[in-house]
Amino acid sequence: MIDETMLAEIREANLTYLILAQRMLRADRAQGMFRLGIGEEVAGIVDALSTAQMIKIASTSTLMCKLRFDDRMVWNLIASNDDDLSIKKAHAAILLARALPEAA
Amino acid sequence: MRGKSVVADAREVARATELIELGMRLQMLESETPLSRERLTKLYKELKGKSPPKGMLPFSTDWFVTWMPNIHASLFMGIYHHLIKVSELDDIDALIKTYRLYLEQCSALDMEVVLSITRAWRLVRFVDAKMLRLAPCTCCHGEYVVREYDLTRHYVCGLCNVPSRAGKKRPLADELPVAA
Fold it and tell me: Which of B47, B118, A10 has the alpha carbon at shortest distance from A2?
């Protein structure tokens, strides 16, 4: 059982995430999908959500966003504090760009 | 474009404007938009305040497999393929959007922009023509640009196995204006 404050934080994170996702998709559908790592179907659903729906979805106790990569390599590259950090980050960016959404 | 819709024409001009602002060369614009050469030249002069550069476009596939350009080219192609797969963009729109995302990545990663839009366009063309392709690295499983006939069964990318003098050359400053 998690406490009330944590639940409130989850709801807040959900709402912020959904609003941001929708804004990104509306600004530029293709780029938004790339940044969010989602497919056409999910993008359509998120884009069509009304504010009331978003609030309703956000108020569940589940976090709506999940950690993007399950690859240790990417974590290591991003988290490393090396001299040639920008090269490491570029490496991570290449690996991330490749990661397609499961739905696509 | 003769006798065609004014709206479609306006769209083409807007697209050409965007491409010129990103630094695309006239030769490529001619092949990517239905606008006439005279109109494109006029547009170019109006936007850039000078005549379009003359001379040949970069044409070598080898450039893309050298160390630093390869990182940039692979990043670009990764984004490009992603966009093509998830959305139904025209090739040229996908190129513009990918290039913007690429520029954004460069500034976020604090890296110099190595790939000009001209190079990026050539890269896409080379891949279409099967002169270049993407091969997975056996170590990090990322996809990297390689030449068609390179052996890639045991391919290890330049980032997993950094060559000893990688990135030690003089700055690329003298190369960029040629490509831009």
Answer: A10
